Amino acid sequence: MTARAEPAPLRLPQLDRFALLAAPGLAYLGLIYALPLALLLLDSLRDADGAFTLASYAAFFADPFNMSVLWRTLRVAALTTLLALLIAWPTAFALARAQGLAQTLILAAMVLPLSVGVIVKAFAWSILFRTQGPINQMLTGLGIVEQPLRLLFTETALIIGAANVFLPFAVLPIYAVIRQIDPALSAAAASLGATPWFRFTRVVAPLTAPGVVAGGAFVFSLAVSMYVIPSLIVGERQQVLSMLIARSFLFLRDEQFGATVSAILLMIAVAVVMGSSWLVARMSGGRA
Fold first, then answer.
1. CATH level 2 (architecture), domain 52-116+154-283
2. Which end of the chain is more exposed for a tag (fewer CB within 10 A), N or C?
């Protein structure tokens, strides 16, 4: 009679000791960032009597003005992201291919603006877009237009100014991906008879897609929630969601409506980040 084999003891997965290094940072984020957001979400789900309800969300989406502000916010964020990526993609290639002093200057031009406050940069763009600002003076001086153009307080000015402010967040992720591309891939394609245009469009450019998606997610998340830039460039004429939030908390004292708009803005940002992470993982073959 054979002895019955003893079942293998249950082994719990061992915690990586290096993971403990992230514990202080996670605790800080949970206390300073996640907890206030959770409380804000609860405020959006409570009425004056403290009962849970979705009435504030229903009221928001039923109001045509709120919907127009929502679509304007998404449109401005999408166009800002597109413009930033159109400028960032060739800039990242130039930064990756440059050497020595040229690379240092380009990298400094991307990083140094991050040390300047958003308010300063937004004020600078508002000065440039004025009726008697440098842009209109140049256009009228060259005879391109007879009368100064109305640039300030327009959506176009907002998109241009926001794309300039958020440009480094698009350049750096694309640059990081380009630096990881093996130069031997282009040489291998050339040995098989591929033309330079074919090598760039079919071999090199597709490999930058994860960086483009990551940079686009960064810029969109920042653009969809910006407050200072639209406040200084377009003012109250073309409001975005962040301006509705500020008005609700600071002037109307309607905390539930402000919390509701904040929760909607947070859901949009989370959806963009999660969607971009999934897309990058698919492009990387599940390694991201």
1. Orthogonal Bundle (1.10)
2. N
